[in-house]
Each structure stands twice: as structure tokens, then as C-alpha cells.
Amino acid sequence: MGGKAGGLLNQGNPEALKWLIEHINQLITAQGIDVYREDFNMDPLGHWRGNDTEDRQGITENHHVVGHLAYFDSIIKQHPGIWIDSCASGGRRLDLETMRRAVPLWRTDYRLDTTGTQSHSYGLSFWVPLSGTGTGVFTAYDFRSNMVPFLNCIWDMRDKNADYDLMRRMAREFRQVAHYYWGDYYPLTPYSTASNAWMAWQFDKPEIGEGMVQVFRRQDSFYLGCQFKLSGLDPAARYEVKNLDTPGKAVMTGEELMQKGLKVLIENQPGAVIIVYKKVS
Predict the structure, then answer these.
(1) What would the pLDDT profile of 105-134 be if each residue is shown by its tens digit?
(2) Is residue 151 part of a domain?
(3) For an engineered disulfide with 88, which of 40, 53, 96, 168 has Cβ 3.0 to 4.6 Å away?
């Protein structure tokens, strides 16, 4: 659809779909591809509507989407274990059927902005357990704001003045806590994009009695601390609680953490902390 002027391959056309399935799967086999990344930097709606008469609007779109899902199914069937990254211009295919087949390892082109990424993570974590974005400008606050299950480190390793010790520490920290993103998600603050807000959430893995809390104090907040009531814990159990930025550990009961709450102080503006906990008895 669109022709020589530039258009869209009509995946609702059986012949076009057959060619696409055969061609791409042959390339995947021949080149030993383990991760198939599909971008989609265009708006297809005009092509779909332009292909339908007034009384048939939506038919081409329907057939195209069904064909595209069948195309993904063919890749999964012919290449067990392959990853499909549905980048789609950053977050344009976060629909249920696509997410059953693929993951958005680049979830949005609105990246690197700390408030934006915090806000994306807050909302997406309700529905999309695995997603990716990037971190570039390097401070601990930037890195922690951009921490997601799949993290792209967009660092210029040619920069002789970069703080490589901090990079290594943050990379180790990410590896330490990344598995918690598979846990149960609990937002601990209301959603906000305000520059004077705090934002926090909890990921809990009840099967191992561990989890983490991520807390962000934005640049214009005049509050030095907050207290967050956690969720999903065993009220009778004792938990070892550690702030990754400070020495020492505290021991609190699940009831204390859920009823009284976890006190968090952040002196920096902006600032971010990660607190991990594990059941000890």
C-alpha cells in the first residue's frame, strides 16, 4: 500500500504475508539470529483507510494486524527460544496480543528524562513486567531513575573524564537487584510528574521472602523524608532491611513495615535510594 512513493507492506494480503514469513525466517536461520528487533517508525492508519471504501473502513487494518500476529507466530514456531523486540518507534505496540509474543526492549523514544522514565515505570509496571529503556547522562539519580528490567547503558566509553568507578558501582547495583523486577508490584505514592513530588514503589518476591523499594525525591521537593507502608509481607516474620547507600542494616517485622511504614531520608535534591529487604526469621 503506497507504492513507489513509500508505503506499507499489506500483511493482510496472503501472498505478501507468505513472502514475508518465508523471507525473514530464512534470514534468521541463515544468519543465526537470536534476537529479532522490529521497529515501526510510521503511521499506518492512512494506508489502511485509503485501501478501504467508506462502507468497509477498518477491514484492511483488521486483516493487517491479524497477519502481523501470524507473522510473529511463525517466527516463534520456527525458532524456539528467539526473542522478539517490538520496539515500534518506542512503545507503539504495547497491546495485549503483541505482548503475548514480544517484549518492548526500547519502550519509548522519550528517554533519558528522569521524571519521564520514573512516570513510565510507575504506570507500565502494572501491566508490562518486562520493558527496556536507556540511561545516558551519568549520575546515580539518573541511573536509578532509568533502571528497568532491561537496561541499555548509553555511555560514551571514549570519554576520559567519565566517572568509571561510579559506572561500575551502579552496574553492580543493577545486577544485584534486577531479579526483583519479576516480583509483585506495589506503588507506594500517587502518580505525579510534579518537580516537587516524591515517587516510590516496591517489588516483592514472596516466594523467596525478598524485595526492593525504589524511592525518588525530585529536585524541588522541600521534604527531607517520607514514610512508606509496604505490602505483601508476612506480618509475623522479621526482615533485614538495608539502604544500598549506607552501612549497616535494620531488622523490622513485616507488621511494622506494613503498618508503621519504612522511613526514608534523602538529603540530595534530586536524590534516589534503593532499599532491599529479606526475611530472616
Answers:
(1) 999 988 889 999 999 999 999 999 899 998
(2) no
(3) 40
Residue (of 257, 264, 146) closest to 204 by Cα position? 257
Q: Which residues on neighbouring strands pair with residue 35, listed in sequence order?
A: 83
What is the model's pTM?
A: 0.91
In a domain, 169, yes or no: no
What distance in Å separates the CA atoms of residue 186 and residue 115, rounded to the nearest whole number?
19
Distance (Å, whole) CA 107 – CA 93: 9
Q: Which domain holds residue 188?
A: 184-279
The answer to whether residue 161 sits within a structural domain is no
The answer to whether 12 touches 66, Cβ cutoff 8 Å, is yes
Q: Rounded CA gap, 81 and 234, in Å?
A: 36
Cell of 121: 515505570
Cβ burial 77-93 (10 Å sphere, 16+ → b, else e): eebeeeebbbbbebbbb
Domain of residue 218, CATH code: 2.60.40.1180
- Helices (H) and strands (E) in the chain — how many of each? 9, 12
Strand duo 238-243 + 225-228: pairing: unpaired
Encode pLDDT of 135-178 as tens digits.
887 799 999 999 999 998 988 889 999 999 999 999 999 999 99
CA distance 98 to 84: 10
Structural domain contains residue 233:
yes
Q: How confident is the model at residue 88 (pLDDT cuts 50, 70, 90)?
A: confident
Q: Angle CA(223)–CA(240)–CA(188) in degrees, nearest 5?
A: 40
* 121 touches 97 (CB < 8 A): no
| Cβ–Cβ under 8 Å, residues 71 and 21 | yes
